[in-house]
Specification:
The complex is a heterodimer of chains A (368) and B (547).
Chain A lengths: L3 E10 L2 H8 L9 E9 L10 E7 L1 H14 L2 E6 L16 E8 L9 H19 L5 E8 L1 E7 L2 H7 L11 E7 L16 E3 L2 E7 L4 H8 L14 H13 L5 H7 L4 H4 L5 H10 L9 E6 L5 E5 L8 E4 L3 E5 L2 H7 L15 E5 L5 E5 L1
Antiparallel strand pairs in A: 1-8, 1-14, 2-7, 2-8, 3-5, 3-6, 4-5, 9-10, 10-11, 11-12, 12-15, 13-14, 15-16
Helix pairs in contact in A: 1-10, 2-3, 6-7
Chain B lengths: L15 E5 L9 H5 L5 E12 L8 E12 L12 H5 L5 E5 L5 H9 L4 E4 L13 E3 L21 E4 L9 E3 L5 E3 L6 E4 L2 E3 L9 H16 L7 E2 L7 H4 L7 E5 L6 H7 L9 E5 L11 E2 L6 H7 L6 E2 L10 H15 L6 E6 L4 H9 L9 E4 L5 E5 H6 L4 H14 L8 E4 L8 H11 L3 E4 L1 H7 L26 H4 L4 H23 L15 E3 L2 H7 L2 E2 L2
Parallel strand pairs in B: 11-21, 12-13, 13-14, 14-17, 17-18, 18-20, 20-21, 22-23
Antiparallel strand pairs in B: 1-4, 2-3, 5-19, 6-22, 7-10, 8-9, 15-16
Helix pairs in contact in B: 4-15, 9-11, 12-15
The chains are: A alpha+beta (368), B alpha/beta (547).
């Protein structure tokens, strides 16, 4: 079984927090990898929140390929940072040779264009990088988005932490939001892209479970948007549905839950909004999910939310104090991060609930 | 003694031979009374017996006249093998036996200079049915638990009506974060994924049709299964058109437009909308042919409903005036939509064909989002009457064509927008739940079935040439006849009960298939749940091959 976790704080946090959150749940997963997405960045990236940062793992040739592409489009690098690589003998890690986090200025032609055009450029560029790096596995472009950093690696999470020096707290590599997961894909081949969290255009999702409507979701999503590719994991479908419902259709977040786990027809009939809910059930029938799942999602405005499958077959719990909120598959993860919190205020979401935490750490609960 | 000429029709020319044992026969006459085809008759045979009674041979011949049952040697009144004589005989003295050496296809054509017509189903037996080489092979275990078929609540409804692409839903959000609708959307009815297929009141006896309608109403009103029934081409009784039960009926309009005068004139009196309109373009059992109701079945009540004299009723092979898909969309659908003020979904039924995907593509790309369902009917479907050559030699199997249409929708990102409904031999082995489930996994939103319903009513026909005389109006089970004596053999209430019970059993079995794959809702397009031991089937349908 998989374990997922996420921390959202009013203060900048070091990724060691995410490692601690996940390591405490290590008996529940197979320790086959570590992946995280950091958003609302501090440290060296704090001055560049409005500019896109590329997160990439690659070979030397991969760097060359990527830089040529970015240069050709007109991106201008302003800051580059690579984590320390403690390549000590005995570490269980299958690391790529280079990890690159680079922040760029937009091409001159885009400087005066609107946010929408810039966002499409960033997506197109990431897709182009991914395609160019794919032959011979020269590299993996995980995310290319303002104020977001992604790291994914195969190996023992503890050793991955050691390799990247993530156990040593500093104030250079921090964020107010970190989502993390400690396992490689089990249903399909182990590839780096298949590790949660998944990110596209400011949306991040990680899921604990199995989406048995994977094929239905995938076949429908492939035709919905050019960015819906890969599908190395059945959980990527959650990301694409979230992106589609919230960004492309512009619907409020609560309708994501109505899309993936619609209410039974019998219950719809008595609802005031039955026409809308029935429309969703019909037009987005292929985005419905089945199977056991707990999902953590992150929106571009840093809102963090969670919801579950309609039978509540996978766990998720939310604990908080005044400055920090932790989402975790197991409560022991929250105990590790917030040992002194009032645990009686922990939230155990229901099967029909969406729980969202906004940037002021206010809790919103929507019953479906 | 009768003289037999070489070209006379004799029993060994006919598809069935009557095997009769005069020693067991009590001459009760039941078999002759029951044979609706008049294929057996009373006859007196001259018998000669020679007896020697003394110690030495002194043979004496004696002659007697013995009453017997004889087969009628006629290409009109020939035995169809229905077995009613055997059923009613108290002494097991008579039965039909298949005659593999018969010359029926040849002599009938030679004697009539006309094509052979019959009803029933395709009689060409192939290899293993495609659906029987498929199993549900993706079983939920461990991390993805199976469901409890008895206790879990399943959500088994399928759309009848045009589904808008998500980007065209007229939704916007208000200040409270609720979605609100700005304009009307096409009508969609959510119904049980198995429709009772289109059999007309004309093809069926009025008692049989009423039994099906009763079963449909009972399933809805008492059992909570929103099953819909298609009327077939030929209209409905006025009292049904004016009743609340009209909402369970899908009205069919076919190329003969039979019965539509009565439907149109009843509109002001309707208190409910029908469940939908189904425009029949083609039929899987006889693609390229229109409906055929032979004059023998055009009884006075059929004449009244359809507004016709007693004559062969031949629906044209196409809708006159519709020469292209665009026209069919613009004229027919719009007029049917407008007739019910855009409250009733309108769908189309076509015979599966090599060209089905092109037709489907044209409809699914229609920017006006009009067509509310694509009913695809395969070769194994049944018919009340057709030319035998059409039945035996034209048509297209349903499984691959349904899959092709679904995958065509997938490649355009339009799956589900025109709901796909499949038919043609589904439930042929008696197991409709399994066939329906597999078709849904292959991409159907639902299925429809007709001839299985007849079998629930007692139809004795089969795929190997037994009976299949629906066209004659002499149905021995009272199902496809308008003869009062024959129709009264059928007990409508018993038939309705059989249909209801079959649906209840099937519903349970359907859930027994949903549960192991862990799905609460219909697994439309979940081909990953299917496996096949047949490599060719697996390749063609793009499912996993197993061995």
């Amino acid at each position: 079984m998989c374990r997922i976790g996420a921390i959202k704080s009013l203060d900048y946090m070091h990724p060691s927090m995410a490692l601690k959150l996940m390591r405490s749940q290590q008996e529940g997963h197979d320790n086959s990898g570590f992946a995280m997405v950091m958003q609302d960045l501090g440290g060296i990236f704090e001055p560049y929140k409005h500019l896109p940062t590329l997160s990439m793992a690659c070979t030397d040739e991969g760097i060359r390929i990527a830089e040529n592409i970015l240069h050709e489009i007109g991106f201008r690098r302003i800051v580059q940072w690579s984590p320390v690589a403690n390549d000590w003998p005995g570490l269980n890690i299958s690391a790529m040779p280079n990890y690159v986090f680079e922040t760029f200025n937009y091409p001159y032609a885009y400087e005066h264009l609107g946010q929408k055009e810039k966002e499409e450029l960033l997506l197109d560029t990431r897709l182009q990088l991914r395609e160019a790096l794919e032959p011979n596995e020269e590299g993996f472009a995980y995310s290319f988005w303002p104020d977001v950093i992604t790291l994914k690696e195969i190996g023992d999470p503890h050793d991955i932490g050691t390799y990247f020096n993530l156990w040593e707290v500093d104030d250079r590599f921090t964020a107010k939001v970190i989502t993390a997961q400690c396992r490689q894909n089990t249903n399909y081949d182990i590839v780096r892209y298949a590790a949660h969290p998944f990110h596209t255009q400011g949306y991040t999702v990680l899921a604990n479970g199995e989406n048995t409507f994977y094929l239905k979701n995938k076949e429908f999503q492939q035709g919905l948007h050019r960015g819906y590719i890969g599908f190395e994991s059945d959980s990527q479908c959650f990301l694409y549905t979230l992106h589609y419902v919230h960004r492309q259709l512009g619907w409020p977040l609560r309708y994501f839950k109505h899309t993936i786990t619609p209410l039974p027809f019998e219950q719809l009939e008595s609802r005031a909004d039955k026409n809308q809910l029935m429309g969703i059930r019909q037009s987005l029938a292929h985005l419905e999910i089945n199977g056991p799942n707990a999902i953590i999602g992150l929106l571009p405005d840093n809102t963090m939310f969670t919801c579950c499958d309609a039978k509540k077959l996978r766990p998720i719990v939310i604990g908080h104090d005044d400055r920090t909120v932790v989402f975790s598959s197991e409560v022991c993860g929250i105990n590790e991060i917030l040992p002194d919190r009032d645990w009686t205020t922990d939230i155990y979401p229901g099967e029909r609930e969406t729980i969202a935490i906004n940037d002021k750490l206010e809790v919103q609960r929507w019953k479906q | 003694m009768e003289t037999v000429k070489m070209n006379n029709v004799t029993a060994n020319d006919l598809p069935w031979k009557i095997i009769y044992d005069s020693k067991r026969c009590t001459m009760c006459g039941s078999c002759i009374a029951t044979c609706s085809f008049r294929a057996i008759k009373m006859k007196v045979e001259r018998r000669r017996s020679v007896v020697s009674e003394g110690d030495f041979p002194e043979p004496k011949a004696s002659f007697s006249a013995v009453p017997v049952i004889k087969q009628v040697n006629s290409i009109r009144d020939f035995c169809r093998g229905c077995g009613m004589c055997e059923k009613v005989c108290p002494n097991d003295a008579i039965r039909p036996e298949r005659n593999p050496d018969n010359r029926h296809p040849i002599i009938t054509r030679c004697l009539t200079a006309d094509s052979i017509k019959r009803g029933g189903r395709k009689n060409l037996e192939g290899a293993t049915r495609t659906l029987d080489s498929i199993r549900v092979g993706r079983i939920s275990q461990m991390t993805d638990p199976s469901l409890d078929a008895q206790r879990h609540t399943f959500d088994l409804l399928a759309p009848f009506g045009r589904i808008l692409p998500p980007g065209e839903l007229p939704f916007s959000s208000d200040n409270d974060g609720n979605l609100i609708t700005s304009t009307a959307t096409p009508p969609v009815n959510m119904i049980y994924p198995i429709i009772i297929g289109d059999m007309s009141i004309g093809a069926l006896s009025w008692r049989m049709w009423e039994a099906v309608a009763m079963a449909t109403a009972y399933l809805n009103e008492e059992c909570g299964l929103p099953v819909r029934m298609s009327s077939g081409e030929g209209g409905l009784p006025r009292r049904l058109l004016r009743s609340k039960y009209l909402k369970y009926m899908i009205l069919q309009i076919a190329s003969g437009h039979f019965g539509w005068n009565r439907i149109a004139t009843s509109m002001p009196d309707m208190i409910e909308d029908p469940a939908g309109i189904l425009i029949k373009i083609g039929q899987g059992a006889k693609p390229g042919d229109g409906g055929l109701l032979q004059s023998g079945k055009v009884a006075s009540h059929i004449q009244a409903i359809r507004g016709v004299p007693k004559t062969d009723l031949l629906s044209p092979p196409n809708h006159q005036g519709l020469y292209s898909i665009e026209e069919s969309v613009q004229k027919m659908f719009l007029s049917m939509n407008a007739a019910f003020k855009f409250r009733v979904p309108v769908a189309i039924k076509v015979a599966a064909s090599s060209t089905s995907v092109s037709v489907f593509n044209n409809l699914v790309r229609d920017p006006y989002n009009i067509v509310g369902g694509f009913f695809l009917d395969g070769i194994d479907g049944g018919t009340g009457a057709a030319h035998e050559v059409s039945l035996d030699h034209t048509g297209h199997p349903i499984a691959s064509k349904l899959r092709d249409c679904y995958l065509a929708a997938v490649s355009q990102g339009r799956q589900g927008q025109i709901p796909l409904w499949a038919a043609g031999g589904l439930g042929k082995t008696g197991d409709l739940a399994a066939d329906a489930f597999k078709m849904i996994c292959l991409g159907a939103n639902g299925v429809f079935s007709g001839k299985l319903i007849l079998q629930m009513a007692g139809c004795v026909g089969n795929d190997t040439g037994r009976c299949n005389a629906c066209n004659t109006g002499l149905c021995p089970a009272g199902i496809t006849t308008q003869e009062p004596q024959l129709a009264h053999r059928l007990d409508p209430e018993k038939v309705a009960q059989n249909i209801v019970n079959y649906f209840l059993a099937m519903d349970k079995e359907f859930k027994k298939l949903m549960a192991p794959i862990g799905n609460s809702t219909l697994p439309v397009g979940r081909a990953d749940a299917l496996i096949s031991t047949d490599h060719a089937v697996a390749d063609r349908l793009k499912i996993q091959h197993v061995c």
